[in-house]
Amino acid sequence: MCGIVGYIGERDGQKLLLNGLKCLEYRGYDSSGMAIYLEKKKAISLRKLSGKVKNLEVLLEKKPLFGSLGIAHTRWATHGPPNQLNAHPHLDCKGEIALVHNGIIENYREIKQMLLKETHTFRSQTDTEVIVHLIEKFYYKDASLEEATRRAAKLLKGSFAIALFSDREPDKLIGARCGSPLIVGLGDKENFLASDVPAILDYTKKVIFLEENELVVLEKERVKITNFEGEIIKREPVNISWTKEEAQKQGFPHFMLKEILEQPQVLEKILEQRIKDSGIFFEELGSSSPVLLSKKLSQIKNIFIVACGTAYHAGLVGKYILESLCRIPVLAEVSSEFRYHSSFLIDKDTLVIAISQSGETADTLASVRQAKMQGAEVISICNVLGSTLTRESDAVIYTHAGPEISVASTKTYTAQLMILYLFALYLAVLKETLSKDRINDYLEMLKQIPPKQRQILSNLKIIREIARKHSHFGSFLYLGRNINYPSALEGALKLKEISYIPAEGYAAGEMKHGPIALIDEYRAVVCIIPESKLYDKMLSNIQEIKSRSGKVIAIASEEDRKIKELVSQVIYIPKIEELFSPLLVALPLQLMAYYIAVKRKCNVDQPRNLAKSVTVE
Ligand code: M6R
Asked: Which domain range does residue 470 map to?
């Protein structure tokens, strides 16, 4: 959460940092700020205020900052309200060091008490401000800025990624990481720091990912990485394949719509990469990865899936897929629970699958560490190249969905599902739980998904109309059965996070155990009822809702006449084997949420109180 950009070079720092912040605003957007070293005055100058980066841009137009060394930040408040005082950067007492921070300093109270006794004065309510004062304390005891930062970093508990500079050493930009991501971008006579790749994609694609407890000193023509003990670390940069265009809106009104529409392409790419000559390929799990040899995979006794939010819903669908195709027990659990509870159930015969778009979700990372301590192998399914999760897992399966900017996950959800289907079929081959013919049939069905998704996306009008008609409802219930029970959970999450309408997902079979009491003419109920073995059961649920005046919106398979007679609002999806239906059902659910949020004039891509990656617990 929060976005950091830092620059040292010869360009217009203000322009570059502002541009970077705009690309990172999805990480936090309640206040922002910038500090630049003013060459002429040989001093730091600061601009910061509450609200979105746009406000900062307006302020900088009126009061520009000229210089080529600077740091900037967009905030997602944890300590202290999102006002100007609490916005980053923060300065030390003398105003000679400027610092921005992502993460949470857990021992900030103790440090603050100690510093207060030493006559430091604080301006904000943030945990961050103690860091810059702590560095100041060591800086004036003859340490260089690098050494002072290192000493301070060793005293901090919690998580942090920081970027800072001082007007006493204006040839250096310093960064450090512990628990929050930070990357270094390499340029020609210039170097960059950022919390995420999109911020620097305009200027360089050569990136070094900092590891835990590392500090970096950037000069115009030099980058030095050390650990917190001061030992030099050599690391080659990686080349980022994402293009800037992929990370831009390209004329769409919102990233979310663009990303929803990208799904057929994303899935096609995954299928092309994984299926060759009717075989399924996961090279990353093969002989190149000794810990996850096929032999070992075929012998695992149970699987734990850990994830949060939408990725957790993908994991729940994964449970249905893996259990039915591989005949293996699977437990899917939210990482925030797993990390404190279930890890004792794990041993060396357990496979843990961690799913995360960002690869930086704090609870998921903690779960992975916990599982590894218990001796389990961890495969991660992740979208962000080089993220912490990918570095800490035994093997990584990338979703390659391209950058997802909207806070609401859409294309990465179906990409995670597609990977799970293919992985389950791959495991079914190893465990010999399905015949070769059956596997080929399933692969053919998966290949039909992108064209079927295109069919849904070619007629947005009906979904938009239904969404508009229901946008005034005060609450929604989403019902599904079997493998579409997680789809119901995901539909409800999508709606609530971007439209702020209370929405609940339920297994339709649970209706009579409570939720039916909610049904009346003010309740919109989205019923997921594709062709399936439980179709008639779902139909009975719909009858029960209708007889209590609930407003049903059905998502059904094309040519379903029964549903048409019963329900006036139907969104049709192409016919598909029930097992694969979540890959189609997801699209109308995402679009419904999107159009309702647009109609209610909500900030679709940056919903209130949320951030794209949740790097704190
Ligand atoms: O980056 P991750 O996939 O680990 O993020 C997990 C959740 O925070 C995320 O899926 C969240 O629920 C989305 N905003 C939902 O659209």
From this structure: 457-599
